[in-house]
Amino acid sequence: MPTANRKPEWLRADFVFAVGLFIAALGALWAVAPAPQWTLLVERWETALFFFAFGLFTIVVGFPHPSFGHVSFDRVAQVASVLVLGPVAGAIVNGAASLVFPWSRLGRGKRWFAVGRAALMNSGLMTLVVLAGGFLYTALGGSVPLQSLDRSVAGPLVVLVVVMQLTNHAGMALYVYLHGGRPGEQFNVFTTGLEIVSGLIAVIVALIFNRLELAVFVVFLVVLGVGMFAIKQFAIIRQKLEMIVDERTRALQEKSRELERQATQDKLTGLYNRRYADDYLNRQLGSAGGVTRPFAVALADIDHFKAVNDHYSHAQGDQVLVRVAQLLTANCRAVDMVARYGGEEFLLCFPGIDLAGAAESCERLRGAVEAADWSFVAADIFITISFGIAENRAGIDASSLLALADDRLYDAKRAGRNRVAGAAVKMT
């Protein structure tokens, strides 16, 4: 749905670019086209009309680009028309073909504004592409009409095809960017190779047209047309296969992420599991490199949890575990690691925090559990949690740090539960 602050379509950058490109193409034709070229176009109007129709055909037998736009064989008509009629006439007939083709999309439900924008963009770009390549070709000594292949025209022909290709890529990349897409996706090895091969085929088209009889040329066009249709079908099948491969790749990646999540996440609470917690703790202590840095851990245990399961059922016990997990994560920092370490036991890691800071954090967590509303489990239920904390010091490993935290947890249990107990590791 359009919004009040959205720009009108005719003020959008891609439309302005399309109009500007079309005007630039008309201006270039008017400015650089010598009078003899226009005279040639009039005198050889049948040939010009043929290449207009041929150019339209090469566009029609194209196929959708994998990411944006339309891939066609129009490079055959563009290069061939330059080699038969010259740059100006070639630019006019191919620009006209590119201007006409997009309007066929109106019959497929496309909006007239989008079709008009595409027509102006394609016509302007193709006109400039043919002019740029064609004038460089003739400036380097390329002959028009092309009658034979020799060393003198080999270089200009290469320049003709390469310049047209680069100009086309640059114009399309800029248009895609202004249209809101990613220009890099426009480059495709298959389609680029197809366009370059089309340029080489165009040289054969021009030679046959200029030198051989009409019957031979017609037969060649029929064979060429069949080849274009075959390549089109191959390209469509190829794109469908690529889509299937991409979909399956995404599915496999999603499955891999799911398996990784299952391997590191507790299914009930959504917290990290013991496997991940042990790996995390080893990485944290190993990265210290023997240098002391603030780091504390806490082992937490829900008080009298067995009685909850026995008195209320394991289903209610699971609800308690899930709610405690939510309270712990909600009251910890984003950098803290919270894991379900056992049945009703949790491991919390506090990077960058010393023993005093960890005690303060755990006291806040203990209070959150104690103050929580547990009536959704049972009206008479009361849940508390105990913590044992320990602080990292140089030379301690993960198992020793956890053992100390576990000792402190038992101290909290022996002292009456619902409390935080902790001590620092002493240097040896």
How would you describe this structure in keywords?
single chain, 428 residues, alpha+beta, Arp2/3 complex 21 kDa subunit ARPC3, Alpha-Beta Plaits, 2 domains, 5-stranded mixed β-sheet, two-stranded antiparallel ribbon, 14 helices, rod-shaped, disordered C terminus
Blueprint of the fold:
Blueprint: H1 13-32, H2 35-43, H3 45-60, E1 63-64, E2 70-71, H4 74-85, H5 87-100, H6 112-139, H7 151-178, H8 189-211, H9 214-264, H10 274-286, E3 295-302, H11 305-312, H12 314-330, E4 337-340, E5 345-351, H13 355-371, E6 385-391, H14 398-414, E7 420-424
Parallel strand pairs: 6-7
Antiparallel strand pairs: 1-2, 3-5, 3-6, 4-5
Strand content: 5-15%
How many distinct domains?
2
CATH architecture of the largest domain: Orthogonal Bundle
Radius of gyration over all CA atoms, rounded? 37 Å
Helicity range of the residues?
A: 55-70%
- Neighbour order of strands in the largest sheet: 4-5-3-6-7
Tally of strands: 7
**What's the N-to-C terminus distance?**
70 Å
Q: What is the fold named in CATH at topology level of the largest domain?
A: Arp2/3 complex 21 kDa subunit ARPC3
Strand-and-helix sequence, N→C?
HHHEEHHHHHHHEHHEEHEHE
CATH class of the largest domain: Mainly Alpha
Low-confidence runs (pLDDT<50, min 5 residues)? 424-428
Description:
The chain is an alpha+beta fold and 428 residues long. It folds into 2 domains: 9-251, Orthogonal Bundle (Arp2/3 complex 21 kDa subunit ARPC3), CATH 1.10.1760.20; 274-424, Alpha-Beta Plaits (2-Layer Sandwich). The protein contains 14 helices and 7 strands. A 5-stranded mixed β-sheet has the order 4-5-3-6-7, with helices on both faces. β1 and β2 (70-71) form a beta hairpin. α3 (45-60) packs antiparallel against α4, α3 packs across α5 and α7 (151-178) crosses α8. It starts with 12 loop residues before the first helix and ends with a strand.
